[in-house]
Design goal:
globular, Rossmann fold, ribosomal protein, three-stranded parallel β-sheet, four-stranded antiparallel β-sheet, structural constituent of ribosome, alpha/beta, 8 helices, about 20% strand, Ribulose 1,5 Bisphosphate Carboxylase/Oxygenase, about 30% helix
Length: about 230
């Protein structure tokens, strides 16, 4: 039998019952204790199993939510804009602003962005990047507020803790909630904002139980199941 590593031993001691349901506070405390051996500031992550089949349009769960305490990560933003809007985007802190030149840059493989924003008049150019931006979830979309004449607000939201959520094929949705160096209160506020946004985004076609399972983990830690009673709408 293979010898247990130090971390495996600690996990066996800390998590004797794999089926246990945790309250948010207890789960966070446990993940903090487990992460003490890690050399970097881990991200707290939430995963939610939803009772939807995203292959059906009326069961798609997608949107944006602002995490009140921010994400703790630097967000790189590219903006398609010209003239005054381009100047405003640069002043608001966009990492890259352009039109045809930005399109060519992206076609050459420079796609290291977390958010792509466009003014409505730029969609003729942006549309040509559908096959590149679509699979990465970066395609600007009016419903998500990333196609907008108000580029300043869109950049502020992106840099200030707004995250996009989109359900995957298996009905799972997940997101980072901030760093473990955040306070308990900051992480709880972000958890509540995220899970409430998912609850409110329940699609018309969802049948039966909508929020089926919620779990918290850290970047290198195990997933701990959260008591669904802590989540609005579960």
């Amino acid at each position: 039998m293979a010898k247990q590593t130090k971390k495996q031993k600690m996990l066996a001691e800390k998590l004797p019952n794999a089926e246990k349901l945790y309250g948010f506070d207890e789960a966070l405390k446990t993940l903090r204790e487990i992460s003490e051996t890690t050399k970097f500031d881990e991200t707290l992550e939430v995963a939610m199993n939803l009772g939807v089949d995203p292959r059906h349009a009326d069961q798609m769960v997608r949107g944006m939510v602002s995490l009140p305490s921010g994400t703790g990560k630097e967000v790189k933003v590219a903006v398609f804009a010209r003239g005054d809007n381009a100047d405003k985007a640069l002043a608001a802190g966009a990492d890259k602003v352009g039109a045809e030149d930005l399109m060519e840059d992206m076609q050459n493989g420079n796609l290291d962005y977390d958010r792509v924003i466009a003014t409505p008049d730029m969609m003729g150019i942006v549309g040509r990047l559908g096959k590149l931006l679509g699979p990465k979830g970066l395609m600007p979309n009016p419903k998500l507020g990333t196609v907008t004449p108000n580029v300043e607000q869109a950049i502020k939201d992106a840099k200030g803790g707004q995250v996009e959520f989109r359900v995957e094929k298996a009905g799972i949705i997940h997101s980072g909630l901030g760093k473990l160096s955040f306070t308990d209160e900051q992480l709880k506020t972000n958890f509540d904002a995220f899970t409430n946004a998912i609850a409110k985004a329940k699609p018309a076609g969802a049948k039966g139980k909508y929020i089926r399972k919620v779990s918290l983990s850290s970047s290198m830690g195990p997933g701990l199941q959260i008591d669904a009673a802590e989540v609005e709408g579960a």
